[in-house]
Design goal:
- The structure is a single chain.
- The protein is α/β, with parallel strands linked by helices.
- It contains seven helices and six strands; from the N terminus they run ββαααβαβαβαβα.
- It has two domains: 156 residues, Ribosomal protein L4/L1 (Ribosomal Protein L4, Chain: A, 3-Layer(aba) Sandwich); 41 residues, no CATH class.
- Helix 2 crosses helix 3.
C-alpha cells in the first residue's frame, strides 16, 4: 500500500511512500500480539514485593497460654498467622516475572500490530523534521494540524532526536520512540501511528533482516 507524505503543517508534499505488504499487510495473529504484550508488561514489573512470614516476624516464642482448660483453641506462639501482628501465610516474595519469547513470535506480533494500524487507516507518514531547540509549543501545534491532538499518538523516529523528545515530553497523549525501540504494546496502545519518512526505511530494513 502507498501513503502520501505530509509535512508538519498537515499539507501533502507530493511524495508517496510504499509500505511493504509483508510487514503492513499480513493476516494479524492475535495470539502473538497477546504473548508479546504480556511479556512486555511482565518485564516492567519490579517483583520486589515482600511480606514477613511466621519465622520473620519479631516476637516472643514463649507459649502464650496453657494448652488446655481455656475453652479456646490451643496456641503456641504470638507469631501465629491467625493473630493480629503475626506472620502472613503464603505471602508474596521477590521474584522475576519475565519469561522467554522466541524472536520470530515477537517479530510476527509487531507485524500483526502494524497491519492492524494499516488496515484501519491509522498510520500517518510525516516528512522528516527537527527543532533547533526544545519547544513544547511546536509539538502541540503539530498535533493540532495533524488532527492527533486528543488521541494517543506514537511518533516513530529513525534515530534519537533530543529536541523532539524534550518537546513532546510534557504533551499528554504523544510519545516518541525510535524505529529500533518500537514494541507491540506501544503500537497497539496508540490510536494513531506517525511514521517519520526516513523511519519507514529503517523499520522495513529491520524486519527484512
Amino acid at each position: 500500500m502507498e501513503l502520501a507524505v505530509i509535512n508538519i503543517k498537515g499539507k501533502e508534499t507530493g511524495r508517496k511512500v510504499k509500505l511493504n505488504d509483508s510487514i503492513f499487510g499480513i493476516e494479524p495473529n492475535d495470539h502473538a500480539i497477546y504473548l508479546d504484550t504480556k511479556q512486555f508488561l511482565a518485564n516492567q514489573r519490579q517483583g520486589t514485593h515482600k511480606s514477613k512470614q511466621r519465622g520473620e516476624v519479631a516476637g516472643s516464642t514463649r507459649k502464650i497460654k496453657r494448652q488446655k482448660g481455656t475453652g479456646t483453641a490451643r496456641a503456641g506462639s504470638i507469631k501465629n498467622p491467625l493473630f493480629r501482628g503475626g506472620g502472613r501465610i503464603f505471602g508474596p516474595t521477590p521474584r522475576y516475572y519475565g519469561f522467554k519469547l522466541n524472536k520470530k513470535i515477537k517479530q510476527l506480533a509487531r507485524k500483526s500490530a502494524l497491519s492492524y494500524k494499516a488496515s484501519s487507516n491509522n498510520i500517518i507518514v510525516l516528512e522528516d523534521f527537527s527543532f533547533e531547540a526544545p519547544k513544547t509549543k511546536e509539538i502541540v501545534k503539530m498535533g493540532t494540524t495533524l488532527n492527533i491532538a486528543n488521541k494517543k499518538s506514537l511518533i516513530v523516529l529513525p534515530e534519537q532526536n533530543k529536541n523532539i523528545y524534550l518537546s513532546s515530553r510534557n504533551v499528554q497523549g504523544i510519545e516518541v520512540v525510535t524505529a529500533g525501540q518500537l514494541s507491540t504494546y506501544e503500537i497497539m496502545k496508540a490510536s494513531t501511528l506517525v511514521l517519520v519518512e526516513s523511519a519507514v526505511d529503517v523499520l522495513q530494513a529491520t524486519f527484512e533482516n
